[in-house]
Amino acid sequence: MDKLFIITLLGLLILVNGVAENLVYNNFAMLEELENFEIDDEDDVELFDIPSWTSERGGKVLVNVDSFGAVGDGISDDTQAFVKAWGTACAIPKSVFLVPSGRRYLVNATRFKGPCEDKLIIQIDGTIVAPDEPKNWDPNLARLWLDFSKLNGVLFQGNGVIDGSGSKWWASSCKKNKSNPCRGAPTALTIDSSSAVKVTGLTIKNSQQMNFVISKSASVRISKVSVSSPGDSPNTDGIHITQSTNVVLQDCKIGTGDDCISIVNGSSAIKMKRIYCGPGHGVSIGSLGKDNSTGIVTKVVLDTALIRETMNGVRIKTWQGGNGYVRGVRFENVRMDNVDNPIIIDQFYCDSPKSCQNQTSAVRISEIMYRNISGTTKSAKAMKFSCSDTAPCSTIVLSNVNLEKEAGTVETYCNSAEGFGYGIVHPSADCLTSHEKDYSFFEQTEVSQDYILNDVTEEKVELADSNNDRIVHTEL
Ligand SMILES: *[C@@H]1O[C@H](CO)[C@@H](O)[C@H](O)[C@H]1NC(C)=O
Ligand SMILES: *[C@@H]1O[C@H](CO)[C@@H](O)[C@H](O)[C@H]1NC(C)=O
Ligand SMILES: *[C@@H]1O[C@H](CO)[C@@H](O)[C@H](O)[C@H]1NC(C)=O
Ligand SMILES: *[C@@H]1O[C@H](CO)[C@@H](O)[C@H](O)[C@H]1NC(C)=O
Ligand SMILES: *[C@@H]1O[C@H](CO)[C@@H](O)[C@H](O)[C@H]1NC(C)=O
Ligand SMILES: *[C@@H]1O[C@H](CO)[C@@H](O)[C@H](O)[C@H]1NC(C)=O
């Protein structure tokens, strides 16, 4: 229905305004592409069509960390056992790297490198726990704990737990205590420079800093992953995606002290479906453009989410002075529950002890759609489109947005933001400017209301297509 709707909008637009049609059409190009943007999970099944390891069929080779001397008492250092087991599992086709259930394995910062032989399964049923003392952390691996790289066609599964034991790291963060130096801390689980990777069932918690990072990877499927860190743990992003394409996150439950999901530079074709977020800072694109850097993010869809008791709902954040662009984003079917800033674009993002100066360059933001977003806001400004004066946001489209505050009225804040709304938009988004006069067309005409408020059936679209004269006549 919604795809048809967009096409109908475009059709009507072109009918009415022959001159500006190309310009306007281009403004929607990426949004329209998003309507067709389905990352079909079934496409990848073949890659992952691996029977469970418990089955003897398929000639699985079980590589149990216990057979390599792991103790699993949570006290003995099992790092070497894991390293040896990895070396073995990686070198044998169809092997299963097994972390058995019911035990706690203490493992130091470790790189698990590929490439490996085909059809490796990493079966994590037990708990892997990090040493909790930052002072003893290997300085050569300062930013990582369990780091998997150069894998192709690998399945991570099991109902085990990856526990970063982060509390001492949090206490030593400069966010917690300004007299601490600002230093990066390890990421609990990293999948880097890999392709065709599936992760399902795992729990990642109490990471030293970010919980789960997907970097420089393609074709990644994350499902039924749960991430939890306390709401006041600093910079503990749930799932962070950087320089990666074709990534699907679904059925994930994330509660952290920072963004539940953050998507940054070099990422494209990212789909998030059925996400629970809270506590945390919401689902974010960015930050981008820090220190005058280039940030590019395109084609992102969040479809079906419950965002509860978070600082932000759906956010795009960029620093002043950056370059690049965010283009083609759709947030839809999102329920907000007591969220500080449910819908926010912040082009003045400044997560630094020093204040940030406004600059002339900025990461450009365009073709951002919010559709079927409802629920409650904590702040009166339920929607904020705070865009750079020198690089206004363009083509922000709102449809069926309804945000309420428990007590008091709600409003929309705009700075240099261009776009329009249709259907119910509450609070009203009249502060969005429209540099194309045509946009007002959608809001004013009876026909457009008709298409907006009722289901757009195939017939209606056909009508619009095949009976142009009549439609135009009705309009005018
Ligand atoms: C982990 O590595 C550090 C630094 O290399 C070392 O001091 C420590 O003994 C290792 N093991 C544990 C369990 O921390
Ligand atoms: C902050 O860190 C300083 C230096 O490490 C310490 O003396 C102080 O007690 C800490 N403050 C709090 C509130 O933890
Ligand atoms: C942004 O991503 C691109 C593409 O992956 C990469 O080449 C570039 O180095 C990245 N820039 C920054 C500042 O990380
Ligand atoms: C970014 O560019 C601005 C304007 O050219 C300059 O004043 C500033 O120092 C630059 N910042 C960094 C971190 O390079
Ligand atoms: C709107 O979003 C809510 C929350 O995700 C969902 O329950 C509902 O089915 C959606 N409505 C439509 C018409 O898709
Ligand atoms: C930057 O520009 C915005 C929008 O015009 C303005 O609200 C803000 O005060 C400016 N910030 C600084 C530090 O000048």
TrEMBL record:
Molecular function GO terms recorded: polygalacturonase activity
Keywords: Cell wall, Cell wall biogenesis/degradation, Glycosidase, Hydrolase, Repeat, Secreted, Signal
Signal peptide start-end: 1-20
Entry annotated with the keyword Endoplasmic reticulum: no
First-listed, main subcellular location of the protein, grouped into a coarse class: secreted
Localization: Secreted, Cell wall
UniProt key word Hydrolase: yes
E.C. designation(s): 3.2.1.15
Active site: 281
Reaction catalysed by this enzyme: (1,4-alpha-D-galacturonosyl)n+m + H2O = (1,4-alpha-D-galacturonosyl)n + (1,4-alpha-D-galacturonosyl)m
PROSITE patterns reported in the protein's UniProt record: POLYGALACTURONASE
Gene3D superfamilies given in the database record: Single-stranded right-handed beta-helix, Pectin lyase-like
GO biological process: carbohydrate metabolic process; cell wall organization
Annotated family: Belongs to the glycosyl hydrolase 28 family.
Name by which UniProt lists this protein: endo-polygalacturonase
Species name: Populus euphratica (Euphrates poplar)
Gene name of the record: LOC105112112
